[in-house]
Amino acid sequence: MLVFESDYTEGASPEILQHLVETNKETLVSYGLDKYSSSAKEKIKKACGKPSAEVFLLTGGTQTNQIVIDTVLAPYEGVISADTGHVNAHEAGAIEFTGHKVLTVPHENGKIMSSALTKYLETYYADETHEHIVRPGMVYISHPTEYGTLYTKDELYSIANICRKYDIPLYLDGARLGYGLMSRGTDVTLEVIADACDVFYIGGTKVGALCGEAVVFTHANAPRHFFSSIKQHGALLAKGRLVGVQFDAMFTDDLYFRLGAHAIKMADKVREILREKGYRFYIETVTNQIFVELTPEEYKKVTENVKVGFWERTAAGNTVVRFATSWSTREENVEALRVVL
Amino acid sequence: MLVFESDYTEGASPEILQHLVETNKETLVSYGLDKYSSSAKEKIKKACGKPSAEVFLLTGGTQTNQIVIDTVLAPYEGVISADTGHVNAHEAGAIEFTGHKVLTVPHENGKIMSSALTKYLETYYADETHEHIVRPGMVYISHPTEYGTLYTKDELYSIANICRKYDIPLYLDGARLGYGLMSRGTDVTLEVIADACDVFYIGGTKVGALCGEAVVFTHANAPRHFFSSIKQHGALLAKGRLVGVQFDAMFTDDLYFRLGAHAIKMADKVREILREKGYRFYIETVTNQIFVELTPEEYKKVTENVKVGFWERTAAGNTVVRFATSWSTREENVEALRVVL
Amino acid sequence: MLVFESDYTEGASPEILQHLVETNKETLVSYGLDKYSSSAKEKIKKACGKPSAEVFLLTGGTQTNQIVIDTVLAPYEGVISADTGHVNAHEAGAIEFTGHKVLTVPHENGKIMSSALTKYLETYYADETHEHIVRPGMVYISHPTEYGTLYTKDELYSIANICRKYDIPLYLDGARLGYGLMSRGTDVTLEVIADACDVFYIGGTKVGALCGEAVVFTHANAPRHFFSSIKQHGALLAKGRLVGVQFDAMFTDDLYFRLGAHAIKMADKVREILREKGYRFYIETVTNQIFVELTPEEYKKVTENVKVGFWERTAAGNTVVRFATSWSTREENVEALRVVL
Amino acid sequence: MLVFESDYTEGASPEILQHLVETNKETLVSYGLDKYSSSAKEKIKKACGKPSAEVFLLTGGTQTNQIVIDTVLAPYEGVISADTGHVNAHEAGAIEFTGHKVLTVPHENGKIMSSALTKYLETYYADETHEHIVRPGMVYISHPTEYGTLYTKDELYSIANICRKYDIPLYLDGARLGYGLMSRGTDVTLEVIADACDVFYIGGTKVGALCGEAVVFTHANAPRHFFSSIKQHGALLAKGRLVGVQFDAMFTDDLYFRLGAHAIKMADKVREILREKGYRFYIETVTNQIFVELTPEEYKKVTENVKVGFWERTAAGNTVVRFATSWSTREENVEALRVVL
């Protein structure tokens, strides 16, 4: 069985694992105050080109979204998301659990369009009764999106400008950021993101780490007592080194970017094979996630040999599935797709 | 200025006020354990035809929705609502405040259609990853809806049957129930509601009381320790008599229904006048709320003489406004509309 | 049966009820924006001697404590209270419901002593791991306390000064403030409270209103978007007039103070009778609450003729009960105590 | 500098790390449904002697306490803890964050005595107004306690029996369980704990893992939809293997117990040295945590050469510090204490 189900089915990249092994016996201070965590944070700030950024290391994506959104919003505010946004659709209510409403705007290929965002905000403020309605206090976008699509630099700044106009922070979920940054044709770099966003996270779990996400508050704007809030949300690791060491490795010698680039190379090849074989893309993507719509017959054939991710059932009775590559995808397995598809 | 802005701009109906005055000096036990609260509950159970119902008296609509939804749902569940539902749109996040997501289905004239509900539930259970998605644990409908529309008896039972099939309770928000029950042509009675729903509330604030809503758990199904939960949510009145006495009056000699009937009679007349004058109804209603779409010129003319409720701005640049009658609407004021519109 | 159980067993004072009746038919704007609410707020600000105060009208005591504490605290902060404080002991977890810990210091006759408060804060800040401990973000006191005792002006300012030193607001729960202000020998006036505290509330429910508490932020320091937060907490009354009209009456011609004074006069007489009859006071009070410790025989005798409040069972097997007078206590009933005790 | 500060200053035990390395390249299903997680759970159930137990793997201690307590309690219930309990004192309000009050009883050497527990529960139920007070819905104990002390088998069953009498679950926090089980003289085994408690967790982080705690619901009593609740609380790891592989190693060939035993052997030696040198134990312990009270001079001397944990300042001006050993403590470092103390 060929597995293209997701980008988190293997352990850690060899370099990351090696760093964990090498540092394992060292006696280090706890709660993320160790030297590797510090080193990782410095490297991330440098890669972002933001010396005044504040970096925090957390464990997983939902946890990160929950804590960032809950601590940045005022208690009476909600977060604007595309209706397809992960925080709206697939996080088991983790945002609402902390008391905040997810305010949805219709997506376009998984993205929030600036026109939709403007319309939402204008409508809110035009409504004379808006004090009875949840106040939009933040914009959440993901890059790549849940549909594997990417914002352009212009689109990103356009959203950022709207946020500034309305004085609400822009938060970018970068669970798969490494893959987005390395995709062909994108003009969005890490520096661009750090410049356009008020806060974002660099996903580790899906880009080669065992666990770990790095939250970047881009301009010395971390919420007060954020350390205590992390603990309050049950997210403080006693051995913070676990994430620190991994990010230290990821941001050494451009490893994070190299891991991303490999997955994209593999994904481009998968796309090529699927195209050759005549499969229909459900949506066009350039990242490591590829969505194809399969007829029942195709679905049967594909899933006999390939483990793919279930995405959704269409009204026409077809099934949308996801092929995902990752830092760990082996070229021989991609080639094998040519045979079985 | 003629005021048709809402149905809560006057105090209490004379009968209700009179009962408050008459009982004012009596020494009564507190926290809603007084004899008038008991009497009110008995009368409500009788009016519902449900001897095993459990009735609780609360103060306001948002409070009631918040407490009922929070206590009936498991902590990991959300409530299905029409996207136009009050709990989704106009309660300042009171539901999310208690940790629950509002799961929306597209409305039809403010109502949830059984087809939309079925689709939502089928999609949820068909999704292989649904344990990552908020579990639908209750259906919320309002009757009359936020658009002043009514369910038919068939529609109500159809939704109730879907709820039973999926083993989730049906909750009906009756903030304006008295007006709905007295509307012309409806086949939905209080007994029908008590039979179809697992829990609903009979709105007092908008139907003649100073404050107060009566929650009815229709089949001995009140959440355990509901009294403590009311206090935990900050909603327990020391002088519970305030609401008890009012509901005792409202359910004496059919006062609640008579108040409702008066508002409907007035609303029918307003509708007649608006129709005669050539105004366009934004939506057809038979209840005490009337929505008309006004051009800028019409808007100017109407609002010079009549205080109406702002509803929304349309894409075409028109304004939708609401005319609301109530138990307190005076016929001479309705007649005066004929002159100024 | 003579009833001295609590101070909320009657309806409203005649003057308050009269004002409700007189204004009942007026058409007023909703949600507390009516002219009577405005008038009440102005009168309260004047009585406090604080023109820049911000006043909000809520419905009940637990609700008020919940909303004030939740909105004033940062989400990661807790509130310091005497262990006997109402928010710690008798509010069914309403504070924790909103995510905040109640941090307790040992009481002295129901009061927080400045020494205990200083010790708490010094210990917190001396603890090198205090970022793992809930941050004290507010001090809660009640006046009168749950034991019917009063702070002196010096004690109050002493606590206020500690709060200022540590930059945390002081909040005073005045559920029975009217009785406290009118007690013999107190040097704490409404102006003193408004000066010493950052926020406090003037209790209506227990001092002659049907319901209602007036929150006073004493120096233009109401939390941002407090109106929305009230709604989010389920506490916004559509007919805000209900509370506005009552407070308008209470702060006309010193009614609030006159109601308080009557209760104190009656309480002083009850104290005198109890003393004459040889009952043992559990705690010395000058307010409208009187606590006596009864042997089983005494308990039997007293409760045969008088309904008193149960307070607690002592280790020695005695029962502490509360006699409470109120604005509505009739002198003949107090005299009747002389006979039956 | 000799480090005896805590038991989480090194990485993973070599066997655990080795298992992570060996399994790193395997393609495994995500979210904890992998074969190593399954294997770990089976081994744990076997070690507990409870075939019907349900085991879940989480990441850290505060997270585990938060999720277990929040999901086992009804929303209106609180958890009884010793006042020194970790959930009360050192978790930054993580329990209150989920809406629950921590109800405290005075500790005795860090433990809850059955007499104190009985008194708490009897007082609660004897109070006629207890519906206004947070309902005790669970008992939380830690073993070893925060003071390094242990319950005896009799004490444990005594508490368990009280819990059963009042029909509330008993939850044991085993953050350092491995050390407790291997302490000299204890009659509490893993089987005893699994039998006496309704739910407990086996701490990994502090007993040799990089991260990870195993929650054991001992009699098929896991809360419904616990998987979704884990995600809702932000605690679901995409690569659940990270914890699964570690616990699989820990429960192979009694590794968990061997790691515990080593720490105890080292702690016994530290105790011996401290005793020889004339230091005063603040509390007598047999586990891996040793508390000594140091005069200012002693404190200066000790901390010049040894990194210890700060515990508290005493009224007399002394400092209580903690020496902690762990699975990773080297004997030569213990011997070195002999020289420098």
Describe the fold and architecture.
Four copies of one chain form a homotetramer. Chain A is an alpha/beta fold and 341 residues long. The first copy, chain A, is 42% helix and 18% strand. Chain A has two domains: 2-8 and 256-340, Aspartate Aminotransferase, domain 1, CATH 3.90.1150; 14-253, 3-Layer(aba) Sandwich (Aspartate Aminotransferase, domain 2), CATH 3.40.640. Chain A has helices spanning 14-23, 35-48, 61-72, 86-89, 94-97, 114-126, 153-166, 177-181, 190-196, 226-232, 241-250, 255-276, 296-305, 331-340, and strands spanning 2-3, 54-58, 77-82, 102-105, 135-142, 170-174, 199-203, 213-217, 280-283, 289-294, 306-307, 309-313, 319-324. The first copy, chain A, has a seven-stranded mixed β-sheet, with helices on both faces. Chain A has a four-stranded antiparallel β-sheet with strand order 9-10-13-12. In chain A, helix 1 packs across helix 11 (241-250), helix 2 (35-48) runs parallel beside helix 11 and helix 6 (114-126) runs parallel beside helix 7 (153-166). The radius of gyration of chain A is 20 Å and the shape is globular. The interface between C and D is medium-sized, with 26 and 25 residues.
CATH topology of the largest domain in chain A: Aspartate Aminotransferase, domain 2
What gap, in angstroms, lies between the N and C termini of chain A? Answer: 12 Å
Low-confidence stretches of chain A: none
Read across the widest sheet of chain A, the strand sequence of neighbours is 2-8-7-6-5-3-4
In what range is the share of β-strand residues of chain A? Answer: 15-25%
Number of domains as seen in the coordinates of chain A:
2
The total of beta strands of chain A comes to: 13
Determine the oligomeric state from the structure.
Answer: homotetramer
Alpha plus pi helix count of chain A: 14
Biggest β-sheet strands, sense, barrel of chain A: 7 strands, mixed
Backbone shape of chain A? globular
According to CATH, the homologous superfamily of the largest domain in chain A is Type I PLP-dependent aspartate aminotransferase-like (Major domain)
From N to C, what is the helix and strand string of chain A? EHHEHEHHEHEHEHHEEHHHEEHEEEH
SS-based class of chain A: alpha/beta
Mean pLDDT of chain A: 97
Most residues in contact: chain pair = A-D, 49 and 49 residues
Percent in helix of chain A = 40-55%
CATH architecture of the largest domain in chain A: 3-Layer(aba) Sandwich
Overall radius of gyration of chain A = 20 Å
Any idea of the CATH class of the largest domain in chain A?
Alpha Beta
